[in-house]
C-alpha cells in the first residue's frame, strides 16, 4: 500500500510528521537510494527502501488497541513503579509487546475502562473535544441526589474552568447514606465527575468508568486487559470521524481475537 513519505517516517517513530517533512526538505531522506525532497511522494513501505540520514527505517510497529480494567490504587502512567512505589498501569500490561499509551486518564483511586493504544492519531482524536466522546461512570456518592440536583448535573454545573456540557444521569440504587448513579459526560476535564458532584453537595466515594465512546467494560475483571475486537476498533474509528458514538455490547469471554492478560501479582 502506498503511503505518503512523511507518514512512513512518522509511523516508524523517527520523528513527528512535521519534523519528517523538515527532514525531507533538508534532503536527509532517500528512497531506493535517491535523495527525495518531493513532499507529496507516496511510497510502499513493504517494497521501497527508505533511509533517513543513511539509516533504514524500522518497520512500523503493528497497531495495538487494549482495554484495561484499571483497579483503584493504580496510577495512569507508564513508568513503573510509580511515585513512592505505587502501582502503575504498566504493571498490568505484561504480555502487550507494543508500547501503548493511555488515552486520557483515570484518577489514582478510580477504576474501570482505560483504553491504551500506540495509534497516536486515533488517540488524539478521541481526546479532542470536537469529537464529544462520551464516557459513562458508575458513581457512588455520599447521600441521595434529589431531582433538582440531577437536573443541574444534566444541564451544566459551574466549575472554576467553566460550565460543564450536557450530561445524562441514571439513578441506579440508594441506601439511607449513599446512592449510586450512572453519569455520562462528553468532556474530559481533570477530576470532572468528582468536581461536578462536589458542587451539587454529594462527594464521590467511588468511581468506575463503564464506557468509553462505543466501548463497554463488560465482564473484564479488575487488573486484566484484553485486545479490542476488529468491530470495536472499527467503531472507535467511526467516532473519530464524527459518527458512531454508541456503545457496542462487550464481547463474551474468549471469543474471536479477544485475549485476556493476567495481571501481575507482585
Ligand atoms: N472524573 C473524575 O473525577 N475522575 C476520573 O478519574 C475520571 C473522571
Computed Rg: 22 Å
The percentage of residues in β strands lies in 25-35%
CATH architecture of the largest domain: 2-Layer Sandwich
- Give the CATH topology of the largest domain: Alpha-Beta Plaits
Tally of DSSP β-strands = 18
pLDDT average, as an integer? 88
Structural class based on helices, strands and sheet pairing: alpha+beta
Number of helices: 6
H and E string? EHHEEEEEEEEHEHEEEEHEEEHE
- The CATH class of the largest domain is Alpha Beta
CATH superfamily of the largest domain: Pseudouridine synthase I, catalytic domain, N-terminal subdomain
Describe the protein's architecture and organization.
The chain is of the alpha+beta class and 266 residues long. The protein folds into 3 domains: 3-56, Structural Genomics Hypothetical 15.5 Kd Protein In mrcA-pckA Intergenic Region, Chain A; 65-129 and 217-241, 2-Layer Sandwich (Alpha-Beta Plaits); 134-212, Alpha-Beta Plaits (2-Layer Sandwich). It is built from 6 helices and 18 strands. Strands 7, 8, 9, 10, 13, 14, 15, 16, 17 and 18 form a 10-stranded mixed beta sheet that branches. Strands 3-2-5-6 form a 4-stranded antiparallel beta sheet. A two-stranded antiparallel sheet has the order 1-4. α1 (5-11) packs across α2 (17-25). The longest helix is centred in the last third of the chain and has 11 residues, at 230-240. The chain is elongated. Mean pLDDT is 88; it is low at 254-259 and 262-266. Bound molecules: uracil (URA). Uracil is lined by residues 106-107, 110, 191-194, 207.
